[in-house]
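Discussion board: Methods & Data

I've been asked by a reviewer to show the raw model output for two of the constructs in my manuscript, not just the figures. I'm not sure how much to include, so I'm pasting the format here to get opinions. Each protein appears as its amino acid sequence followed by a line of discrete structure tokens. Is this the kind of thing reviewers expect to see in a supplement, or should I convert it first? Here is construct A:
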Amino acid sequence: MKSTDEKQNNKENMKEKMLEKQREAKTVRRIVFIITVTLFLFLGGAGLGGILYVSSALKPVDPESREYKNIEIPIGSSVTSIANILEDGNIIKDGTIFKYYIKFKNESGFQAGQYELSPSMTFDQIIESLKTGRVIREVDFKVTVPEGLWLEDIAGKIAKQTGQTQEEVFATLNDPAFIEQMMEEFPFILTEDILNESIKYPLEGYLFPATYSYYEDENTVEAIVRKMLSKTSDVLMEYQGMLEEKQLTVHEALTLASLIEEEATESVDRHLISSVFYNRIEIGMPLQTDPTVLYAKGEHQERTLYEDLEIDSPYNTYIHTGLPPGPISNAGVSSIEAALNPEVTKYLYFLATPEGEVLFSETLEEHNIKKAEHISSET
């Protein structure tokens, strides 16, 4: 039989174990409580955050925006692809929310086409526009900017729609404050390169050749130019990989493209002209392209005279090697592509004949023979 002391010790041990279990149970309950509360708060916060996000996504991207963007909906686009296009175009905040909104409203019958949509539009306005196949606003006026135009000439086209003179518009286009504002809005294309002190006009070559549609509240120089710069930025973004591959800046590419644009005819392969410029730059040979001389002179004329070749200007590629300080006109897509993808040749010379044909040569002797055959010696 166990002694009284042993029984007492066993009783105390059992009591201690029971107390220890109680303490463990209390600790476990506390941990479970903390986890439960934390999880509840997390889920509650996430739920609240989700509600706030959806509520925000249902609202216009920018209710105060007056900008309208050209959005293309291709034939056969699904609701998902339409939603993605609108999100990529910054017309809506979230494509998924827009898609479920359409399903909830049981909307259908969207039509393919070109739309002018604004970040200020509501979901219902966007849906109505896509269903009717028409833009929300009627075009008030259009501005057509051809390839190879000088900034001064583009100013004349803008002036016709703003009630200002060509000189007043041109002054705005070269105003330092305006230039700075545009650089902030379009940092990809408008870099410090355009502020080089040798450059005649910072925005020369940056207003992309195209036909632009404008509306009644867009008849200001700022609104008109902003849409042109936006187009330039969109076009060049597509060639970002090629720019990096060629190790060319946007400014250099547009400068070279402008030379090609000015020298090319409709029938010539611009990639061959591009190769001549690349080959000359590689060996340190002056580009000797007449359009740069005329640009330096600041006059439009059919022929370049021998006396013009001596004009003292950083744009004169007869007396300076390499590219001029900046573009001498606005280049189209074909010239930009040629500037980024020259043909591989050994040509160092090309000659435009009066008939519009362009002849290429590897040597000066060959070039002079062709020149004697096709070009009058009169100056």
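Construct B, same format:
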Amino acid sequence: MPDSPETSTDEHLSFAAQQDIPIPYLARIRSYYQALGYGKPYVWAHYSSVPFTPLTKPLADCRLALVTTAAPYQPDKGDQGPGAAYNGAAKFHRVYTLSSDSEPDLRISHISYDRQHTTAEDMRSWCPLAQMKQCAAKGEISGLTRSLLGVPTNRSQKTTLTQDAPEILERITEEGADAVVLVPNCPVCHQTVSLTARHLEANGIPTVVMACAKDIVEHVGVPRLLFSDFPLGNAAGKPNDEASQAFTLGLALQTLAAAPGPRTTVQSPLRWSDDPDWKQDFYNIERLSDQQIRDLRADFDRQKDIAKREREKSRA
């Protein structure tokens, strides 16, 4: 009798580990915040229909815009470097633009990326600006818009839809963007850029989202998604791995050009690790002690207060 898939010595006939699937962020986050005592779960944006604008000319003739949720470094706002703890003071609350010709210092300490399995030491793993410049130099795209754009991570879907996404559309239209690459980092970032991508597509601008939280982006509903099964904070490739970063952006651009219609998802074949156990850690309440849960609740409340004060100052 031949071996069963579970016992076969032929690796091509063996099943993957049961946990070797994309992280179910929506379910994890719901359980996590309920365990912290926050009651009614957050309602994520969800659409049944998805706008889609085809790319009407070759990529080599397209000027691309880049939208990120990373924050410009603010020296007066505490530690924002590699491995920094969550830093609510470093948040930004309005769309920003920086010259795409510059070498901006962007950080992600203001959001909930996967601090256990990555360190945020290489900006190129969450912001593919340098790699996009290389594509332009090779003639794979015609160039970049003059501005890199930052969209704030916002739990308020109304604010994203009525304020931030229209502002992104206005700015990239002024700069002649033919298409847009959007790169989120934390769970709420993924919702933010998905809503922004939908708004751009509904107004005639093709988009592709490079993301690590597949279920959140697909739950919202976007035209094109390149999914990398990596820890949050690495949607543009593995840190300090130029080959991974080049491959990831190249696959995103192929998805942008070749998607046949809305809800096109392409999964990168790259793996973070041969051991999939890292997927069991992020926001997994089953791996936390009662004391850890109490400590997390206290820190979350403290960070909410900090972020609220910073938001109020930005509006003043």
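Answer (T.O., handling editor elsewhere):
This is acceptable in a supplement if you add a one-line summary per construct. For B, something like: The radius of gyration is 20 Å.
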